[in-house]
Amino acid sequence: MHSFIFEPQPWRVVFGAGALDKLAEEVARLGAAKALVLCTPEQRATAEDVARRLGERCAGIYDRAVMHVPVEVARAAREHAASLGADACVAVGGGSTIGLGKAIALEFGTPIIAVPTTYAGSEMTPIWGITEAGVKRTGTDKRVLPRTVIYDPTLTLSLPPALSGVSGMNAIAHCVEALYAQNANPVISLMAEEGIRALASSLPGVVADPGNLDLRTKAQYGAWLAGASLGAASMALHHKLCHTLGGTLNLPHAETHTAVLPHAIAYNSAATPEAMARVAAALGAADAAGGLYDLAVSLGAKMALRDLGMKEADIERAADLATLNPYWNPCPVTREGVLALLHAAHQGRRPQG
Ligand code: NAD
Predict the structure, then answer these.
(1) Which of 50, 78, 243, 302 is deepest in the core (most CB within 10 A)?
(2) What tens digit of pLDDT does each residue of 90-141 get?
């Protein structure tokens, strides 16, 4: 066994169908009297329900969250929060909405109560991201880690089946990279492996029967473990590549993770046999990369980056950007290797086991 450092995060997780009933209590527990509810324009109705539940502790609703937290949106939300005297934010939605809460917390230290409605996992991490002039800056700051996370799977029932599938694959990506992370530790590895198992065994049923609360509960349990893995372990090639593709080419977040994952894992598999064995076992597949591909296909995901809007001419530039700044990966990241990986993902070929 390798040496390791284990540093538990101060997570408070309230989990289960109906957990949203505890929202007002949880906000009071933080000593907040005026919470601003954050959401996307599409999730306004959910935010209104949340605001009703908060009653007098609600400062208002800010419904302009969008993907990748543009700096203009972050500034406007901060001004709005300050003008209302908000002393907490309740972020109800996916990574985009929780990301907006983090942008406010980064400036004012306002505590976040996250109510996640996708499987992306931002609620469990101290990582923030803000996009300015087409470039997404990210950083880590303990102030942006939500103080309380309320996982109520009834809120995921409305997540469309196709988005549920790719959002779940996005969560699995966190687990896989946590298993071979430079700072991996045995506790987070247990959570990561269990996260893959819970997601892989529930997602096909979620996509086929999106109203099934038992399966939604299991998928969200997996998403929690995946978010915890993302928050505790540093990510490598797969996440760096998706960050480049999303930020520079504006490709959709969860869909891009889904198409790239089998190829990034195939790239790293020879260097990470122990992690690959755990991924394959959790998937119930003969090999990790092929098993991830087959799972994504069974969820109806688009597996070719060209079908997500990436042009063949973008491959060279993406490979340049992805290899510009060195970072840790279980095996060397070469421009040649990344080019081959991107060509395979662009065409959506099944990786060889
Ligand atoms: P998202 O938050 O952008 O949501 C996608 C769409 O789905 C939105 O229109 C949203 O309103 C809608 N939606 C969400 N939940 C719904 C539900 N239950 N029912 C119906 N519609 C629903 O998507 P995402 O994949 O959750 O988040 C992606 C963003 O989060 C990216 O910007 C990514 O970089 C970021 N992210 C950050 C971290 C981190 O640790 N900082 C982690 C993961 C993702």
Answers:
(1) 50
(2) 999 999 999 999 999 999 999 999 999 999 999 999 999 999 887 888 999 9
pLDDT tens figures, 17-44: 999 999 999 999 999 999 999 999 999 9
Q: Give the contacts of 260 (CB within 8 A, at least 6 positions apart).
A: 238, 241, 242, 245, 305, 341, 345
Check residue 111 and report its DSSP letter. Answer: -
Closest C-alpha residue for ligand 1 atom 17: 159
Q: Report the C-alpha dihedral over residues 290, 295, 301, 307, rounded to 10 degrees.
A: 0
End-to-end CA distance of the chain: 26
Residues in CB range of 264: below 8 A, 6 or more apart: 237, 238, 241, 341
Q: Name the residue at shortest CA distance from atom 39 of ligand 1.
A: 122
| Residue owning tokens 């790719």 | 166
CA 324 to chain centre: 24
Binned at pLDDT 50, 70 and 90, residue 143 comes out as very high
H-helix segments, the chain: 23-29, 44-54, 71-84, 95-108, 161-179, 186-208, 213-232, 237-249, 253-269, 273-283, 288-298, 314-322, 335-347
Helix (H) or strand (E) holding 38: strand 35-38
Residue 262 in tokens:
């089998």
How many other C-beta atoms can be found within 10 angstroms of the C-beta atom of residue 25? 9
Q: Which helix (H) or strand (E) holds 132?
A: strand 127-132
Q: Identify the structural domains of the chain with CATH numbers, from first to last.
A: 13-156 (3.40.50.1970), 161-347 (1.20.1090.10)
Range of weakest confidence among 71-80, 230-239, 320-329 = 320-329
Distance in Å, CA 3 to ligand 1 centroid: 35
